Amino acid sequence: MLSESFLSKWIPTLSSQSPQAAEMTRITLIVTAVCVAIFLIVTAWVIYSIVHFRDRGEAGEPSQKPLDHRIEIVWTIIPLLICVYLGWITVASLFGKNNGEPLPGAKPDIIVSGAQWWWDVRYPDLGIITANEIHIEAGKPFTVQLDSYDVIHTFWVPDVGRKQQMIPGHHNTIVFQHNVPGRYLGACAQFCGNQHAWMRLLLVVDSPADYAAWVAQQKATPKVPSGETPAIAAPAAFATKAGTAAAAVAPVSALGDLEKSIARGYKIYQDQTCGTCHRIDGVSTARYAPDLTHVASRETLGAGVITHNTPEALYLWMKNPQAIKPGCNMPNFQFSEEQAHDLTNYLETLK
Fold first, then answer.
1. How confident is the model at residue 11 (pLDDT cuts 50, 70, 90)?
2. Cβ-contact 32, 39 below 8 angstroms
3. Which residues pair with 279 in a beta bridge?
């Protein structure tokens, strides 16, 4: 489930497709080259000294010759110049145009808030709220405000620049852009509890047309289901691919009348007070857990612990989230198979 996905691959730390990341990559490579050169010179000098001045069986102490002071001055000045150069390029980068700092008084385009163990993502000017995924337009800089709902987190998407801490009660702000459409992995880089390792973040860089389509989709209000909700027979068995601890369950599409199943799922959402924690536009307004308004349109679930957002995977999460992400704040509601399928069918309409 995890090993076949992009989200389970290693996170690259050097990138040149974002101006901010490219600046960090440039300095990293310069410093690395200087350090490697110093290492090779010192190593070569040590090897030369070992060979040239080795003990040849001669009696007495080796002759002691005073060193020319000019040589001492030279090997003092050279390291000093190296330090000055490295300090200069670092300071120039900190105050350069690609330092990732917003202009004074700039309003945030995106507000990202860390929570144990997920990401709340808001676009205040667009009125969009989502979770665990950030969409940006390729080639356009975005000002991002970073907050925390509970403990200290650290926002880190290596492909767009540096790490930045998220501290409760304090706003940090960064600016980043990415020039190449694609999907890029981020994570919380500050230990924040037992599921810190599965506090992943997906950055989706869209083309202008795709970004406009995504914005339009996210602004749409989901349809509220209606209809009767009669009971249905127990589902037949089938083999699922979405998890290691899953029992055999019926495919979502095999549960009789889909519209009635969706209506029952909507009723379960209301009866089980899911809206006390989760928000669905037009249905509930809570802010204590990931927004579900368009949950079926996302690529992952559980902040990356489920790497393919399929109906089968969503069913497993509804059945027992603690089996998938132990210690997460969503309890196991002990749903029956029928209830879990109905709720899954309803949530699958939220695209």
1. low
2. no
3. 285
- Which residues on neighbouring strands pair with residue 188, listed in sequence order? 155
User: Domains in the chain: how many in total?
Assistant: 3
Residues 151 and 73 in one domain: no
What is the per-residue pLDDT across 149-160, written as a single tens digit (0 to 9) for each?
Answer: 999 999 998 888
For 16-50, write each residue's pLDDT tens digit.
778 888 888 888 889 999 999 999 999 999 999 88
Strands, sheet with 142-148, edge to edge from the N-terminal-most edge strand: 128-131, 118-123, 110-115, 142-148, 172-176
Whether 212 and 117 map to the same domain: the answer is yes
328 occurs within a structural domain: yes
> Got the DSSP string for 142-165?
EEEEEEESSS-EEEE-GGG---EE
Q: 314 with 283, same domain?
A: yes
**Is residue 228, in this structure, part of any structural domain at all?**
no
The CA R_g of the chain, rounded to the nearest whole Å, is 28
In a domain, 59, yes or no: no
- Name the residue with tokens 């290596």: 158
pTM: 0.76
Q: What is the CATH number of the domain that holds 283?
A: 2.60.40.420
Domain residues for 40?
19-51+67-94
Q: Which residues, in sequence order, are CB contacts of 91 under 8 Å at separation 6+?
A: none
Q: Is the pLDDT of residue 56 over 60?
A: yes
Mean pLDDT, rounded, for 178-202: 91
Q: Is residue 334 part of a domain?
A: yes
Indicate the pLDDT class of residue 119, thresholds 50, 70 and 90: very high
Query: Same structural domain for residues 286 and 338?
Result: yes
* H or E element, residue 210: helix 208-219
Q: If we measure between CA atoms, which residue out of 347, 302, 351 comes closest to residue 5?
A: 302
pLDDT in the model for residue 259: 84
Q: Nearest 5 degrees, angle CA 207-CA 213-CA 215?
A: 100
